[in-house]
Write the structure tokens for this entry.
Amino acid sequence: MVLNETSILSRRNLLRWAVTSLAFCGFGKQAALAMARLRTAAEARELFIGTAVAADALRRDSSFKEAILAECSSLTPELSMKWAAAEPSRGRLELTDMDEIADFARFNGLAVYGHALLWHGSIPHWAEVMLREAPDWQHVRNHIATVMPRYGDVVRYWDVVNEPIDTGHREDGLRDSPFLRAFGSSYIERSLHDARVFSPRGRLMINEYGLEYDNQVERDRRYLFLKLIERLRSKNVPLDGIGLQAHLDLRKGTVFQNAIKEFLQEIEGFGLEVVVTELDVKEADYAASAEQRDTTVADETRRYLETVLDHANVKGVTTWGLSDRYSWLRVTDEELGAYKGAWKDGSGPGLNRGLPLDAMFMPKRMHAAMASTLAD
Ligand code: XIL
């Protein structure tokens, strides 16, 4: 849908009006914001808002489904599109889960964010052997050629390469992955060129993590990622944008807003789009009260989003799960060792509370922080 400026402004005003009226009717501003759906807030500024989903949870859990439909306009397959899931043995496709996610999206008018075509973390065993012993690009190309057209009607953004950067190995900052060892550093441009063939209009992305904090590794990662983009740009490789995973981590302190801003200015200068692709918050202190934990998580989310959303080339925000019930962020044994018992309902240290809804699908302060930052 194309919105002109006036209608965007009036939608934003409508949202503000709704929040103010709810607040006026006796709900606190926090409560009013918690009631504002993320989707309403995001759409008011023409952003998509999504969550990662596992097909299994989508199939079994009707409350999860309802929450998705209320809050989201986009879904990212958490596992089902990755190579190891899609082609577990050579030539045998296993796309039932992915088909189900795509059908759910089509039926409900949601978009799918295509994650991820090439990722060192999900290479089927047979392909690892192939890459090591007899590298043949045709197999990589086949994966791209199978997945992209099959979901091309519902996917607009594609993570063509996921996590290509790693520090401490090579001067160019590229990860020493099976793809790099098999085909050299040109595997990135090769996959982008192939992706363009199989998706002439899709937005082709490189998705990366570890770009938020003020430490040496993340400073290097920001620099090396920009260098990679610069090289690709100078060769006219088809790249439309970058994904910022944004796995925030309170153990690292608080996000370094100035560095993120500078980084995004560079990205804007390259004419690229930006999507926040995997937002969540790893907690540092499970001993605090649930309220305190939620406040800390919400504050970090707000600091991050207000910095990122300030840039006009940002197109969407996806959280890595919607509810703490399905977070990949586990509280480690070591962390758990510090507590007696694990509260499985998400009210205590048993679960990490770094997503907008708690394990019972109730909106938390992070939800309100997202809604208000999106609405601002
Ligand atoms: C994770 C899933 O959440 C886990 O369930 C799975 O075991 C491993 O992958 N960066 C990414 C995601 O790009 O694909 C990862 O997802 C999390 C880190």
